[in-house]
Amino acid sequence: MKIKKTKLGRIVFIIIAFIMINVIASVSNNGFAQNISNDGQDLFPFEKNPPQYNNNIGFTASFFSGIGFHYKRNITPEHAVKVVFFGWRSAEEENNNSSSTQLTDIWVSFGLEYRYYFFKVKKDIDLYVLAGAGIDYSEKNESNPDINLFSLEINNVNSIGLGIGSDFRLGKHFVFNVEIGFVNRWERKPNRKISAFGFAAGTGIGFIF
Asked: How far apart are CA 12 and CA 18, in angstroms?
């Protein structure tokens, strides 16, 4: 039986998700429940040292949840949700002899990310697993009624992914994060649909309060 690349990517994605959930559950319930000393660094469960601040605002660039300004909220010491949003619009006019052409570009990025924090390394590094989803929408509009020109090009890219990441404290009120994992992305156009599955990464910086 021949399996399409799109279906194969989704199967691999589900398998990775299942493995990650079982690994985290196993680690959380077993040996790391006690403090471990490794080269002078203490590694311990996250709930033993909850975050000092619960709010985070900043900027994110990630294949998991998109590009834009973010707000992250710690719901509990271990669980957090992040929202990412950015919008941009430009308009210009081209004059050609006695007629003018209106050019309009719109781009919107929106994403959501869930994090489960499971370990801390000392007090400056937090380890977490994540599940994220994002939408990138863009359109290019060109119109000129004088010559019956009406053109609209729409590009819609959706993504969903799983990964693992870490927060690094930079002083008292700043956090830098790095995350890696796998993402399934699909692009919708009027006459076609493109899907891809592969390795992904993300980063961001925020002010915590």
From this structure: 10
Tell me how far apart the alpha carbons of residues 81 and 45 are, in angstroms, rounded to a whole number. Answer: 20
Q: Give the domain CATH number at 181.
A: 2.40.160
Number of folded domains in the chain? 1
Terminus-to-terminus CA distance in the chain, angstroms? 55
pLDDT one-digit tens code per residue, 65-101: 999 999 999 998 889 999 999 998 887 777 776 667 7
The string of DSSP letters for the chain reads -PPPHHHHHHHHHHHHHHHHHHHHHHHHHTGGGS-EEETTEEEEEGGGS--S--EEEEEEEETTTEEEEEEEEESSSSEEEEEEEEEEEEEEEEEETTEEEEEEEEEEEEEEEEEEEEEEETTTEEEEEEEEEEEEEEEEEEEEGGGTEEEEEEEEEEEEEEEEEEEEEETTTEEEEEEEEEEEEEEEETTEEEEEEEEEEEEEEEEE-
- Identify whether the C-beta of residue 59 lies closer than 8 Å to the C-beta of residue 69: yes
**Residue 153 and residue 103: Cα distance in Å, rounded?**
12
Strand 149-170 and strand 99-121: the pairing is unpaired
The answer, as to whether pTM is greater than 0.85, is no
Question: 121: domain range?
Answer: 5-208
